[in-house]
Design goal:
single chain, 830 residues, alpha/beta, seven-stranded parallel sheet, six-stranded mixed sheet, 24 helices, 34 strands, 23% strand, globular, DNA-binding
DNA sequence: CTGGGGACGATC
DNA sequence: ATCGTCCCCAGC
C-alpha cells in the first residue's frame, strides 16, 4: 500500500506528491486526508495524504515508510483536498499552503528531535559526562531541545555520540496544542457500599467524610477543581479517597468554550414579511432540489436579512444538511453570535481570529466530530469540515475582508461558490450594496437572456417596520471654506452634533483615517516627514507624540523644528481620528467620545467593550474609522456624520468609487433604525461625484449603472479579469531587471495564447500585459516594489501563463532572489 | 594536497 | 525549505 503525500515544505519544487509506504500497523488508519509525519530529505516533516495507491511512481527502493500518523480522524476530507487543488491552481500557491489554510493552526505540527541512549550502551557512571547521566535519569530518552538548553557546551560531544552510534536520534511531529484534559472526579459506582465505607472513615478524617458524602449525593462527575473550591479542601483529601478505591479520578476531555457561562436566550422563528417570505421560499426550493444555486440577496439595511438566513438554515438542517455562515471579522460581535446560538443552541460552532488557538481548535473539532451543524465565522470558516453542506451564507458579500491578503490569497466568496458546487449546496450572497462582480453575475439570470447560468437576484427593498431611509445631506466643504469656516466640522454638522447633545441622543462620526494628522510639512521649505523604510508620509500620533508609519510600524519622535531648514514653521496637515477627538473636546466641553480605530481596539475584546459602552449610552459620540460603519444598531443614534467622504475616493484603486459608495451607504444605514428619526450628514470636497450623490439618494441601481460605464470604458472588472504580480527586492536594479524579464515572458506567452483564439481584442477573448511599473507605494519595509498587471477575458489560462513566467524569473531563488507575489482578482465564477 | 564556501539539485 | 554534493580556488 502506497500513500501519496503532500509534504509541508512550501516551495515550487516540492509542490507535488511524494510516495510513501504505509506500514502494516497503520494500514487500516491511513486514508486520503490523514495528517502524517514522513521522513523527507533527512528530516521528518508534516504532510497530508492526498491519495492511496497500489503502486508507486518511483523505484520501490527509494520508498520510505510513513513515520507516524498524527490524528485519529483525518483532518481533511476528499472534497477539501479537491478544493485545495482548485485553490492552488486558481490562486497560484503550493498545494500544501492551500491545505494548511483549511485546518486550525493548532494542527500545524513541527518536527521535534529526541535523543536516546543506544540499547547496547551499559551504564558507566564513573566516566559518563553529566549530560549522559541526565538522559539516563529521564528514562533513557530526552528532547534534543531540552538537552541543548541544559548543556549548551555539550553540543560537540552529543553530535559525536550520535555519529558513533552511542546515541540514537528520533524525530516526531509535535502539535502546537492538544485536546484540553481536566481532572474529573466520578461518584462511587456502588452507593450502598460507599455509605458503608463512609462510617468506616475515622473521625479525624472528617474532611474525607464530607467529600465522600458530597460525592454520594452527586449524580454527575465533577471537575476536581470545582469540587475542591466547593468544599474548600485540598486534592490530597480526594486522592486519599481515590486510593481507598471509593472514588475515581480521571482525565476527561473538555472543550475550551469561548462562550462558556453565557446563557443564550432561545428564540423562535419570527413571522416573515411578504418580501422576506418570497426570498425565503426561493432559497427553500433550491435547498429542497439539492442542486447548487447561487442567490444574490440584495436587501437594504434593516430589511431583515438575518431572519431569512436563520429560517433558511433551519430548513437546511431539517433536510439533514449543514450550513456555513460567513460574516466579516469586524461584524462577528457577541450580539451577532447570540442570534445564531439563540436559534440553534449548541449546534453552532463559532470560528474567528479573536479566539485563542485552543478555542479555535475545539470549535473546529465540534464540526469535525459532527457535534455542530452550523458554523458561523470569518473568511476561513468556509473550510469548516462538514460532510453534507446544504447552505452557505455570505453576509455583506461585498466586504473586501473576504479576500485573504497572505498566501493562499483566496476570496472566500469564490471558494464558497466552488465548494457549494461540490456539495450541491445553495449559496446566498447578502448585501445592501452588492459588489459589481456579484451584481453582474446576477444580471446573467435566465430572464436576461443567459439561460442556465447566473445567480438569481432576490431583492428586498423594504425595511422591516416600514421605516424610511434617513435623509442624507451633502455638505460642500469648499463652500464652507468660502464662507469663512476653516474648521473640520461644517456648520450643519456642528449644529447637528449640538442638537443631539442637547436632546441626549447619540451620534456616530466616521473618518477613514487614524492617527492625528496625515502628514507633517515644513511651511518654510516644504519638507515632509517620510518613513525611512517606506515611500510614504509619516502620521503624527498625538497621545504618544510620535510619527508613525502605518505600513511598517516605524516610529520616531516628532520634530519641533524642521530637520531640513531648522525653521519652526513645521505644521501638521490633514485630519485623523485623534485630531477629531481633540476638536470635539474643544467645541463641546464635557462631551463623552469613544474613539474606535486600530489604535484603540488592539486588545482582545476591546472592540466589544467600546460598543457595549456606547450601547449603554455612556458616550455621546462614537468616532471611528470604517469599523463604526458595520452592522451596528443603536436605538438612540439619530445622527451619522461623515467627516471626509473623499478619503477613500482618491485611492489608487479602480474600486475606489465602489468602496466609497458602499461605505457611505453602510454608515448611512446606522441612523434612525428605531423610534427616533435619523439624519445623515456627509462632508465632501467632491459633492457632485456620482459615488456620493447616489449614496445620498440610497440609489444602488444608479450607482451601478454609472460605475459599470466607467469600468467598461477603462476595461476593468467585471469587463475583464485581473492578475496583479508584485515583485520586491532591496535593490532597485534587481527589481527592474526581474520585472522586465517577467513582462517579456508574459507578453510572449500572451501572444502565443492569442494566436489560438479568434478576435484577440474587443472580442470575448483577450489577454493583455501591462507594466512593469513602480507600485503605488514604491517602497515598503526597505524593499522596492514593481508590478505587472495581466488583464484578460474569456477562455484563456492566464493563471497558468503567469505561473510559468513567475517560475522562470524566480529560478535563481537564493536569498538574494526577487520576491514575487501573485494576486488574482476576485471573480464570481458560476 | 586539503578544506572552506558557494552553486546546483534532489527530497518519495 | 534544507541538506548533501560537487567543484573551484586559496592556503599550507
Amino acid at each position: 500500500m502506497i500513500a501519496r503525500v503532500i509534504v509541508d515544505v512550501p516551495s515550487r519544487q516540492t509542490d507535488r506528491p511524494f510516495d510513501y509506504e504505509v506500514p502494516g500497523e497503520l494500514a487500516g488508519w491511513i486514508e486520503p486526508g490523514s495528517r502524517v509525519g514522513v521522513p523527507f530529505g533527512g528530516r521528518v516533516v508534516q504532510g497530508f495524504v492526498i491519495a492511496i495507491a497500489d503502486n508507486a511512481d518511483v523505484d520501490r527502493s527509494k520508498l520510505k515508510p510513513i513515520a507516524e500518523l498524527l490524528d485519529h480522524l483525518p483532518p481533511l476530507s476528499p472534497d477539501l483536498i479537491e478544493l485545495g487543488h482548485w485553490i492552488s491552481e486558481k490562486y497560484c500557491c503550493p498545494l500544501t499552503v492551500a491545505l494548511q489554510a483549511m485546518i486550525p493552526s493548532a494542527l500545524k505540527g513541527k518536527a521535534e528531535s529526541f535523543v536516546a541512549i543506544a540499547q547496547d550502551q551499559a551504564s558507566d557512571a564513573l566516566f559518563e559526562p553529566d549530560w549522559m547521566m541526565f538522559i539516563r535519569q529521564q528514562g533513557g530518552e530526552v528532547k534534543l531541545a531540552s538537552l541543548q538548553a541544559k548543556y549548551p557546551d555539550a553540543a560537540r560531544d552529543v553530535k559525536a555520540a550520535i555519529t558513533l552510534g552511542d546515541l540514537t536520534e528520533r524525530a516526531a511531529i509535535r502539535d502546537r496544542l492538544s485536546v484540553r484534559k481536566v481532572l474529573t472526579v466520578f461518584p462511587p459506582a456502588d452507593r450502598e457500599s460507599a455509605e458503608l465505607a463512609l462510617t468506616a472513615i475515622p473521625a479525624r478524617a472528617a474532611k474525607q467524610r464530607e467529600v465522600l458524602r458530597f460525592m454520594i449525593g452527586q449524580e454527575d462527575p465533577i471537575q476536581l477543581q470545582v469540587l475542591l473550591e466547593t468544599l474548600s479542601t485540598t486534592s490530597s483529601t480526594v486522592r486519599a479517597l481515590e486510593e481507598k478505591g471509593l472514588l475515581v479520578i480521571r482525565e476527561v476531555e473538555l472543550d475550551r468554550d469561548p462562550y462558556a457561562g453565557r446563557a443564550f436566550r432561545r428564540t423562535e422563528p419570527l413571522p416573515l414579511m411578504e418580501g422576506q417570505q418570497q426570498v425565503y421560499d426561493q432559497i427553500a426550493d433550491a435547498l429542497d432540489a439539492g442542486e447548487s444555486q447561487v442567490f444574490l440577496l440584495h436587501g437594504v439595511t434593516g430589511s431583515g436579512k438575518t431572519e431569512v438566513y436563520l429560517q433558511a438554515i433551519e430548513h437546511c438542517l431539517n433536510l439533514g444538511r449543514q450550513a456555513i455562515v460567513l460574516v466579516p471579522e469586524i461584524s462577528l460581535t457577541p450580539q451577532m453570535v447570540e442570534r445564531f446560538k439563540g436559534r440553534f443552541g449548541h449546534e453552532v460552532a463559532v470560528l474567528h481570529s479573536r479566539l485563542s488557538g485552543g478555542e479555535r481548535y475545539d470549535e473546529w473539532r465540534k464540526i469535525r466530530e459532527k457535534r455542530a451543524k452550523v458554523a458561523v465565522g470569518a473568511r476561513s470558516a468556509i473550510f469548516a469540515p462538514f460532510e453534507r453542506l446544504g447552505l452557505i451564507i455570505i453576509d455583506e458579500e461585498h466586504e473586501s475582508s473576504y479576500k485573504q491578503e497572505e498566501s493562499p490569497k483566496y476570496h472566500a466568496r469564490d471558494v464558497a461558490v466552488r465548494r457549494a458546487k461540490q456539495h450541491g449546496a445553495a449559496v446566498v450572497l447578502g448585501s445592501a450594496t452588492p459588489s459589481l462582480e456579484s451584481y453582474t453575475a446576477a444580471a446573467m439570470t435566465p430572464a436576461s437572456g443567459n439561460p442556465g447560468r447566473g445567480a438569481a437576484l432576490l431583492p428586498m427593498p423594504e425595511r422591516v417596520g416600514g421605516k424610511p431611509m434617513p435623509p442624507v445631506t451633502i455638505v460642500d466643504m469648499r463652500e464652507e471654506l468660502r464662507g469663512g469656516n476653516r474648521a473640520m466640522f461644517s456648520r450643519p454638522l456642528y449644529e447637528g452634533l449640538k442638537k443631539r447633545l442637547e436632546r441626549g441622543e447619540q451620534s456616530v462620526l466616521l473618518l477613514n483615517r487614524r492617527g492625528y494628522s496625515t502628514f507633517v510639512m515644513c511651511r518654510a521649505c516644504g519638507y515632509t516627514a517620510q518613513c525611512p523604510h517606506c515611500d510614504i508620509a509619516l502620521t503624527y500620533h498625538q497621545k504618544s507624540r510620535v510619527l508613525r508609519c502605518h505600513y511598517c510600524g516605524h516610529a520616531e519622535g516628532s520634530p519641533s523644528a524642521c530637520p531640513s531648514c531648522e525653521s519652526e514653521h513645521i505644521r501638521f496637515f490633514g485630519t485623523g481620528t485623534q485630531r477629531v477627538e481633540e476638536e470635539l473636546a474643544k467645541l463641546f466641553p464635557g462631551i463623552r467620545v469613544i474613539r474606535m480605530d486600530v489604535d484603540t481596539t488592539t486588545e482582545k475584546g476591546s472592540h466589544e467593550k467600546w460598543l457595549t459602552m456606547f450601547g449603554e449610552r455612556k458616550a455621546d459620540v462614537l468616532l471611528g474609522t470604517q469599523m463604526v460603519a458595520k452592522g451596528l444598531d443603536f436605538p438612540y443614534v439619530t445622527l451619522v456624520g461623515v467627516i471626509a467622504a473623499d478619503t477613500s475616493l482618491h485611492l489608487p484603486d479602480f474600486r475606489a468609487a465602489e468602496k466609497t459608495f458602499q461605505l457611505l451607504t453602510q454608515v448611512a444605514g446606522r441612523a434612525g433604525r428605531h423610534q427616533l428619526p435619523g439624519e445623515v450628514i456627509i462632508q465632501t470636497y467632491n459633492p457632485e461625484h456620482y459615488a456620493i450623490t447616489t449614496a445620498q439618494h440610497h440609489d444602488y441601481d444608479a450607482f451601478v449603472k454609472e460605475e459599470l460605464g466607467h469600468r467598461r470604458q477603462m476595461a476593468y472588472p467585471p469587463y475583464c479579469r485581473l492578475i496583479l504580480i508584485t515583485l520586491s527586492h532591496e535593490q532597485l536594479p534587481q527589481v527592474i531587471n526581474a520585472g522586465d524579464k517577467l513582462a517579456a515572458l508574459l507578453r510572449h506567452s500572451a501572444d502565443e495564447a492569442g494566436m489560438h483564439g479568434a478576435g484577440l481584442h474587443g472580442g470575448n477573448r483577450f489577454i493583455e500585459v501591462l507594466g512593469p511599473v513602480a507600485s503605488s507605494i514604491p517602497r515598503i519595509k526597505d524593499r522596492y516594489r514593481f508590478q505587472c498587471m495581466v488583464k484578460y477575458r474569456g477562455n484563456v489560462d492566464a493563471v497558468g501563463i503567469v505561473r510559468e513566467a513567475v517560475a522562470a524569473v524566480a529560478r535563481p531563488q537564493d536569498k538574494a532572489g526577487v520576491q514575487i507575489s501573485v494576486d488574482v482578482d476576485p471573480q464570481v465564477i458560476l
